[in-house]
Amino acid sequence: MSLPARSVLLRAADHDDLDALVELENACFDGDRLSRRSFRHLLRGRHSQCLVATSEGQVVGYILLLFRRGSSLARVYSLATAPAWRGSGIGRQLLQAAESVARERRCLFVRLEVREDNPAALALYRAKGYKLFDTEPDYYDDGATALRLEKALAHTPPQPHQRQLFYRQSTPFTCGPASLMMAMASLDADSCSLDTRTEIQLWREATTIFMTAGHGGCSPEGLALSAWQRGFDVTLYRQCHDIPFIEGVRDERKKQVIRLVHDDFIERINASEIQLQDTAITPAQLQQHIAAGDCLITLISTWRLNRNKAPHWVFVAGCDERFVYLNDPDPDEDGHHPFHDSIHLPVSHQEFERMACFGSQKLKATLVLRPAGGETLADAGNIVE
Asked: Residue 92 and residue 13: Cα distance in Å, rounded?
């Protein structure tokens, strides 16, 4: 039975819609509901946008869109249509409006989850061009499986080395080993086991011992040596000749330990076949290395992702003329972004340039790996200076 024609207005939601949104949420979902507190927080958030569909002043549908800080990724967190309005096309209108908002904010991807047993919603998303990229068993409160869908907006992104290759760091201080493991396994699956034992072993080899607090982080030199010792050809781009991370340490005894470790790393690198480039890698070089089949990890500051000033290593999953695609081994799961949002995360070149620089030292470091004996870009004369 077709619904009678009724006019619908789409607009941005505000605090006055809070009661109606909570009522609609309770009418539409039996579980996994957004709480009143969550709605209140998301309505005033800088990285979220809620659109409502209204008819004669009544809220009859909503869509909630989240934006990953520092990236070009949008996420449909929730979409609901009042039971009496289902089949009227409101869901399609809201989704189209949300995609327009995402484009205005220069997002490349829109991602979402949908229940495997929700054929109506799945049909809507597929009709709008969303494609399956992963599944998550036991995702919902009742144990139902989630299908993870994604749509590229007005841009065809490159395929990463291996879309599903991802290793999540198991400790707060092993982002470097986790990123290096992704790079090594991408080049040679047999060369590196993606497990905690390997992760900790790499950290023990590459750590600088002390940081501002807690366990030490891994320096560019330490990670370069770990990769080279495992049979890979390695190029290290590094802009800054100061000792990495020493600026965050006040205790002079700890500083002395860091100096000793760093000096040892340098001596061993000088005796190795690791190629050192005393400059930061350029976007053009990044693209060239990836096009050549090399794998890269790079140091960033987490400030632009989560407002925490910490050095952090990520795996570069791809690069094109507009975006760098990152696999972040430490997903910032705040209850709204699943760890899959940290896989093939699109970051504009401009944002990446700001992100890939740490501390007052302005440390920039990128590690390039390739199979042993492979021709480097420098050997081939293809490096753009």
From this structure: 18
